[in-house]
Design goal:
105 residues; two-stranded parallel sheet; 6 helices; 48% helix
Amino acid sequence: MENEITRNCNMNPHSTQKKRELGAYYTPPELSKVLADWGITCASQTVLEPSFGGCGFLTSCIERLEYLGNNKPLNNLYGVDIDQHAFDTLYNKFPFYKKNKKVLF
């Protein structure tokens, strides 16, 4: 079930040094999907992504919530990160968050 949201998965663009400074590790999409499918058990569940990075887990959570019948999954997702690039990626992929300021700083 690929859609506009899931097509443009952006992995970590940082140098090795910057990744170390940030403690950045970007989970492969296949693993994000397995974890979202396991952890999200109903369409009304709220999800906090504590380090959204390239938005891989957010994307998997959206897919899972939609599969379970949630027609507005972005309303159930919250995320935090310390990397400005992560916010740029988030706002590019999900303009809803910037407009509604649903991201925690």
